Amino acid sequence: MSDYAGETDLRAMQELSSRLWSPAARWHVGDLAWGRFQHTGREPEWPTRLWRAGERVVAWGWIELPDHLNLAVDPAYDGSGLVDEVLDWFAATTSGVRRTVTVLESEAHLLPALARHGYRDSGDGPFFVNMTHDLRDLADPEPSPGYRLRTVGEADVPGRVAAHRAAFHPSRVTEESYRVVRGAWPYRADLDWIAEAPDGEVAAYCLIWLDPARQAAEIEPVGTVPDHRRRGLARAVCLAALHAARSAGATQAVVGPRGDDAYPVPARLYRGLGFHETTRSRLLHS
């Protein structure tokens, strides 16, 4: 067991996530890169610990203070009490609060330990769905007249960040943090796409992360500036990025939008692109 020690340990976390990956898995290598680097200065809010068998990471826990746990555990070790160890560490680190954990319905190896530790399904609140798409069948991108689809360059970072902050207001993504994202593995500039408006403004964007070991691409994130919505730009920029991912070796793509009725637009977008659901998340409370 060891505490998180920076980029080297992130790669170890990504290695475990890649090893466990399937279209119904909780974590893709891109989730970790985007999640850990999209904001700067948050490391004190994120206690993180890794569990190893020899040199190989077999579990990790990532707490989002004050009360939420993200985790991954190799199912080959689920009979060794490893999930219990992660949950004990979570409890010791966050004593005095009501704790939450997000898992997927497909992560059955985590559920017995969670039940032993008193976690129960909340029965309310938002949930997310895993969706997958076979990239052998892709429509062609068709941007609205006057808009241009292209990849992001260094000079585009301010506009790309402004578009993200407009699409996800309020947002803590900054130019500094996005440059860190661009320097993180497995970021590829050829998979970072924008829809450029006639006046040169970044109107929409789609970033795809490729796990070359799994030939699996993940969309994370996608957004459209409010003034440019309802013009099909999110669909067009996603298709452009997915075509690029296929050219880079991806055979399938995944995405994890909200699945509840409170925020239905993204899931409708992805269904229209050809994605279908594989599993959904559950929010458990202690």
Question: What labels describe this entry?
Answer:
286 residues, alpha+beta, 13-stranded mixed beta sheet, 8 helices, globular
Q: How would you explain this protein's 3D organization?
A:
The protein contains eight helices and 13 strands. With 286 residues, it is α+β, with helices and mostly antiparallel strands. Strands 1, 2, 3, 4, 5, 6, 7, 8, 9, 10, 11, 12 and 13 form a 13-stranded mixed beta sheet that branches.
Give unreliable regions as ranges. Answer: none
Oligomer state of the chains in this structure: single chain
Number of helices: 8
| Strand residue content | 25-35%
Task: Please give a quick description of this structure.
The protein is α+β, with helices and mostly antiparallel strands. It is 29% helix and 27% strand.
Helix and strand topology:
Layout: E1 2-3, H1 7-19, H2 29-37, E2 48-53, E3 56-64, E4 68-73, H3 82-93, E5 100-104, H4 111-116, E6 120-121, E7 129-134, E8 148-151, H5 157-167, H6 175-182, E9 192-196, E10 202-211, E11 216-224, H7 233-247, E12 252-255, H8 265-273, E13 276-285
Parallel strand pairs: 4-5, 11-12
Antiparallel strand pairs: 1-2, 2-3, 3-4, 5-13, 6-13, 7-12, 7-13, 8-9, 9-10, 10-11
Helix pairs in contact: 1-2, 7-8
